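dumping this here so i dont lose it again. seq + smiles for pyridoxal-5'-phosphate
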Amino acid sequence: MKARNRKGIRSAKDIHAGELAVRGGTPVRDELAKPWPAWPQPGEKEWRERIEPALKKVYLSGCEGLPHPAADAFAGRFAHYCGAAHGRMVASGTTAVAAALAAVLDLHAGDDAGEVILPDYTFIATASAAIDRGARLVFVDVDPRTFTMDPASFEAAIVPGRTRAVVPVHILGHPADMARITALANAHGIQVIEDAAQAHGAQCDLGRTGALGHAAAFSFQSSKNLTCGEGGLVTTSDPAIIDRVAAFMDVGRDPQGYRWDYPRLGWNYRPSEYLAALLNVRLDDLEGQIAHRARMAALLDERLAAIPGVTPPARGPWCRRHAYHLYAVLLDPAAFAGRSRDDIVAAVNAEGVPCSAGYREPLSATPALREHLRRHGDSFRAMPCPNARRICDHSLWFGQNLLLADEPDMNDIVAAVAKVQRAFAADPQRGHDGD
Ligand SMILES: Cc1ncc(COP(=O)(O)O)c(C=O)c1O
C-alpha cells in the first residue's frame, strides 16, 4: 500500500507513530522547517563585517596572485597553528599531497619514487597524488576502531631498500597513531608524509596534525572543516622541503631567486590571494567549531551506543583531539534484521537526517586502481585488509556540519537511527513503500 493517496493526503494508518518516513510515515525531522547548519555558513552580517573587508583589502592592494603576500602570510599562520615552522599554500589538497611527496623525497619529473605505503581506507587522492609522482603503492590495513593506519600492517609491508615513504591519513579527523608509525619509519629510514586533508586541528600524543612527520598535506576543499572552496597547504619544519614545495607549485622557481630562473622543473599550482584572505578569516573560527563538534560528538557517542547494532566512533589511546570531519558509526546488520546498509541509509535520510555510506570499497579495490594495476603490473600491492573491508561494508557517515547544530538536533539524529533500527528489527520483510 502506498503511504499517501494521489492527492498526497495521509491516511490515519500512515500517521501511525513509528511508521518509517521511507514507508510514508512522518519523518523525525522536517528539514524544511528545521534545516541543518549549512557548510560553509553564509550570512549577510558575516559578509559585511568579516568577509567583504578581507576580500576588499586584496582587491585594493592590486595584488591577486604572485608574489602572494596573503597566501604566504596565511600559510605561515596556519603552519604556526599546527606547530610547524613553514607552510605553503597550493591549489588543492591533492596537489599538497603530491608536492609534499615530491619535496620530501626530492623527486624530479620522471623519477621512480619507489614504494609508498598508505592505508586502504582513504580518499582516492591519497593514492592518485602518489601515483602522479611516480610511486608504486602498497596498501595496508587500518585499525578496526579508529579506521586509521594499523602500525602492524605498515610494519609487515616494509621492504628494506624499496619502501621510501609512508602516508598515514588522519581519516575522518581522527589522528593516526603517529608515535608508533614514526618510530617504525625512523627505524627503517622511511619518510613520513601526513595526509591531514580531513584533520585540521586534530591532535595526538605527539602534537598537532601538520607537525608530526617530514611534511603534511591539508585540503581546504568545500566540505573540509576549514575551507575556501578549493585549496591546499603543505606544512613542514624543514626549510629545504618548503623550498622544494615552493618550486613544485611555482614553475620551478627558487623562492629567494630571480623570477625568470628555473633551477628545478615545476608547475603552476598557485592559489589566488582571495582564497587566502577567506581562510585567514575562517581560521579564527576553527578552534570554537572544533570544541562545539566535540561536545555534540560526545552526546551522540553516549546516546547512539544505546541503540542495538550501532557502534559509535572510538578514539585511540593516542588521540588527544578528534577533529570530526566526519562522525562515523559501525552498523551490525543482524540488529537491523539483515537489511542492507543502502536500505538503512535511505531510511535514515528519509527521517530528515542526512547520512551516507562513505567509502564503499577499500581503495585498492576501486575500478580506477584495478585498471591502473592491469596496465602496470607492478604498480601496487595490497596487504590483507579485512578491517578496511569491514569498515567499508558497515559504516554510516554523518557530515561535520551536523555537529555544528545543538543538543536537540543531536537527539533527532539519535531518534532517526533508533526508529530505523526498531522498525527494521520488528518488521524485516516490509519494503520501503509498505508493500
Ligand atoms: C584524505 C584526503 N586526502 C586528500 C584529499 C584531496 O584534497 P582536495 O580535494 O582538496 O584535492 C582529500 C579531499 O577530499 C582527502 O579527503
